[in-house]
Fold this sequence. Notes:
The complex is a heterodimer. Chain A is mainly alpha-helical. Chain A has 13 helices and no strands. In chain B, the strands form 2 sheets. In chain B, strands 6-7-8-3-9-10 form a 6-stranded mixed β-sheet, sandwiched between helices. A 4-stranded antiparallel β-sheet of chain B has the order 2-1-4-5, with helices on one face. The interface of A and B includes residues 208 and 217 of A.
Amino acid sequence: MTELEAGCAERLAPARDVAGLHRYRDVLIALIAFAVLASLPLFSSSKSLLDFVIRCSAYGLFATSLNLLVGYTGLTSFGHGMFFGLGAYSFGLIMQKLGVSIPVAFVATLAITAVIAAVIGAICVRLKEIYFAFVTLAFQMLIHSTILSWASFTGGDQGLRGGIPRPAFLGINLADHAHLYVASCALLILGLLAMRQIAQSPFGYTLRMIRDNAARASFLGIDVWRAKLTVFVLAALFASMGGMVMALFVSGAYPEFAYWTISGEGIFINMLGGVSTFLGPMAGTVLLLLLNDTVTRFTDYHGIVLGVVILFFALGLRKGLLDFVAEWFAHRRDAGEGR
Amino acid sequence: MLQIRNLAKSFGGVKATNDVTLDFPDGSLTAVIGPNGAGKSTFFNLITGALKPDSGQVLLDGVDLAGCLPPEIVRHGIGRAFQVASIFKSLTVQETMLAAVSADQRTSAVLHKRFPLPETRDRAEHVMELLGLASKRHRTAATLSHGDQKLLDIALALVLEPKVLLLDEPTAGMGPEERWRMIDKVRELWETQKITVVFIEHDMDIVFKIAPRIVVLCYGRILATGTPDEIRNDSAVIEAYLGTEHAGAAA
Lengths: 339, 251
């Protein structure tokens, strides 16, 4: 028994520093990932590969932010795509109509997203499971139809055309493909790092408690409603960031960005990649976009093929890709400990 | 001191708690017993804010908490454990404790630091030691045995350092041996932590053995209160609840 206790004490003492070390480890991984991504153009001149990475950045930010809701808090939003569309449209409109610099439009878009997400969230997060899912979906449709019907402002079903002006700032010229590529990678990595910090903060553990047992969390003195609203707004900000990357990439914004299928794709990505690990949605993003690109090349019926793949993951495996990887590691670790 | 004054709650026509007035002095240990449907759990739910009372007062050190929400009541110092262990199944024992201390220290919304915060460690450690969960700290809550899950539930209440601890059937679903171990633990906690403990229990042997004071509820009303000996020999209690077996054993 004393040996056991000694072992525990030993394990706990260095644990005081472990939390800090994890943070440095994450920053290090992020720096390496950024270095690899940013040096990609040196090894490959394929524009379609770089375009692929930019699209992964946009969707990856969106899907990972959705996982903050679905995986960490247990809030299954069917309308998260509205913030993707909102980000693309507000950014595009601000750039087109006000002619401000890109960082100003970026921050202004985040502010607009935060306000709208706070209002929608305040209504939605009180609702339980299926009601939450459907009311978020309803708000998504509301935003989508507003974009369609307010044609004089948003361009209606034609979208924001005529290109989004991309004036250079601080020596960064986003009209240049190479600059846009590096900027997208930087936004992706910074966004992921920020979301990782949220997930591993005391607040992140509050979210896990709410997911597991919201009633018990409130008996620990946690204001469940406030925590849910906070994460709803935070997730919306990162989805909006994804939308802005997309708007910069296509130099426009289209009603499809705010359509419910975007939310659906976000859910698919999470199912493919898995919600039990932080990087699951990122893996799912790469997987879905790869599938999308290859399948559309071979057949017009890509919807059927994607549907089958998703059914295979959902019904057959009942887990996402990285869930398996995580389980495999956990299994190996347990075996190593000789349990 | 926890004082309940004329507490009442009806569900439709059923008076689940009917004009209950009780005092729980600081540092007391009280068992609440009664037949099924006597309103024991409802009584706890009213005190902890899970249900809103129709009328009456819940006074903790003179502050009326009746009708407040659970988070407020918890912050005033009334902690509770549940009949069915209410835990966070995907967190480890240690994470559960650390997160609960974080909630109590009002750092559960902190975004810019990493979990766990250093200042949460000592309290979490202390309570894990106290309940004998320290050696299982890295186990996920869902993989714990039934008894350990109940202990974890109590630890969750205890780690908030409550003035009053309400335990809804701490021995529910346990085998005879496990029951005694659990109840010894409860008694030990009461003796060492100097807190007010109120627990619901069905096993009469346990109640009569460890509780200095017993409250008997029946149809939402207080049927009797008193020491084990007084309760054993109370004719109303014998008729409504105990039957003659325990009365005989007392003599």
